Amino acid sequence: MRSSNRNNNHLKSDADKTKKKYFCLLFVCIFGVIAVIFVLVHSTNRTPATLTPTELYPLKCTYNGSFTETQSIKALTNCTNKYAEYSVGKRNSYVVLYNYVTSSKRFNCEESVTYVTHADFTFLDNLGPLLEKWNGPISLAMHAPGTDFYKTVESIAYLRRCTSQVAELVTFHLFFLEDHAPNEIPHPSFIANMTYNCSTNPPFENVDRKDMYVSKHSLIYPINVGRNVARVSAETYYVFTSDIELYPSPNVIPQFLNLIAACDYKMLPYKPVVFVLHIFEIEKGYDVPTNKTDLIRLLKRGTVIRFHQNICSVCHTIPEFDEWAQANETSELQIFTLGKRTGKYYHWEPIYIGTNAEPLYDERLSWEGMKDKVVQGYELCLRNYTFFVLDNAFLVHKPGIKKSDPEKNKWRKRFSSVAAVAKVAPPFPHRRYSTRPTCHSISSTSVVKFDRTIIELLGTPSLFVLRCQ
Known about the structure:
Elements: H1 2-45, H2 53-56, H3 69-77, E1 87-91, E2 94-101, E3 113-119, H4 127-134, E4 138-143, H5 148-162, H6 166-169, E5 170-177, H7 188-192, H8 213-216, H9 223-232, E6 238-241, E7 246-248, H10 252-267, E8 273-282, H11 292-301, E9 304-306, H12 321-326, E10 334-339, E11 352-354, H13 374-382, E12 386-397, H14 417-424, H15 428-432, H16 452-458
Parallel strand pairs: 3-4, 3-6, 4-5, 8-12
Antiparallel strand pairs: 1-2, 2-5, 6-11, 7-12, 8-9, 8-11, 10-12
Helix pairs in contact: 3-10
């Protein structure tokens, strides 16, 4: 009896051990499957796989021509047309006259790229040279408080009458603080039909800023209000948010549309993306170069320098610049390389072609305080944007090399955006996006961390960190 019970106990013990063994094996198998799925998904999100940048770039695509470029972009973007109509709105304390004076030519969303910019009337001498290079739609937001409003209106009327393509291609939006509104606002149709004697000097020429309303009332220049007003008002899907004193190389629009039509499918793993142009300054008295070959020749002579090289070189340091400068010019627009706003590039303030899907610029920051694009750049990093750097296209500032002059800029210290960004950047973007340790605002003091796994995969410096963590 005892022997029989002992045998039964042994059998039961062996069965329990077998069950535990199978349970452990099942657990290991399930865990293994989950681990494999996790690795596959995680590696898929890390773009690209194990190819080095030199194998990937320049990214060349050939458009097959089965559709027109614009038909392809319409299908790729699924954009809808939104034609300019006059309206009055508010942005915080600012009154905005959207589409106050519209261009005579309307654009479907897919057929062009809108140059988005801002100014006050004293900068309108740049509009002619800009149009000559851009040759496409421009959305221009103008700060026009108080009596400056009337000088702005006169300047618009002059340009529409006397400067080629302004009436056809430029749409003007005017904005001002509610407490500094003009006494009277003429109807847009009155402005559009104004005539001007083109033999007289332009209203925006030889203006003493001390005599302007903004100076007499110590008003700041709300640069980001202007950027946002002009951008959201653009008729086209693709927008190029830039400054009115930056002149692009010719033929950017058709070349960019061809690039999108040909290469969009190759860009999918990298999205969201924007398309960055190199920026330069040129000495006064020289013509702005119109092609990369001439640009690089002048760069080697020292006649051309990188943008803000003497003021804030880290703000416009672009990955692979030396390689870009050594690469020969070609007839097509190409994606030369890519980068992220991380590591040594966390100060980067790129000027790029994008869409209205990108974060708006923080309107609490002003031109006087500088660093006015840093919060938007921080948000782009938090959203894991890839910056495609374009070849054979560039921007050149209005002739005249900028010099660092601490004494001259002392007055701007009271407007310093550093303190403002410290309040704005954290926590506001964090409320909208998840935190990424490698993304840094201007207020960050911690040492930048790199994604070592990606660096090891690519075998390249930190500029090719492909993902903010």
